């Protein structure tokens, strides 16, 4: 089925307005991107085939997203989008460590993140205590 960009935009916009809609769209999008990236990888990987999925989680907009991370039989495929998300996580961890190293408490660091990034202190705690 082919959907026009206008219709797709309307569907996504309407879905985002629902409770948890933004996280669901992020989850759908990340899963679709990884699945397509694996398909492209397998086109050029002779003798290699898809080998299902493994579960994974990344931090979305205020909650963890459940991902289906595609695998290949030879273990050669790793989605680029996960590399970007892990880099973002590593940078956040460095920033939080630096803030703690300067003597800020968890509450103070949470307030700083809330002011700068509109994150709640709970979100900061969750993202720094979770590893993808």
UniProtKB/TrEMBL annotation:
Keywords: DNA recombination, DNA-binding, Transposable element, Transposition. The keyword Glycoprotein does not apply. It comes from the Bacteria. Coiled coil: none annotated. Required for the transposition of the insertion element. Belongs to the transposase mutator family. This is Mutator family transposase.
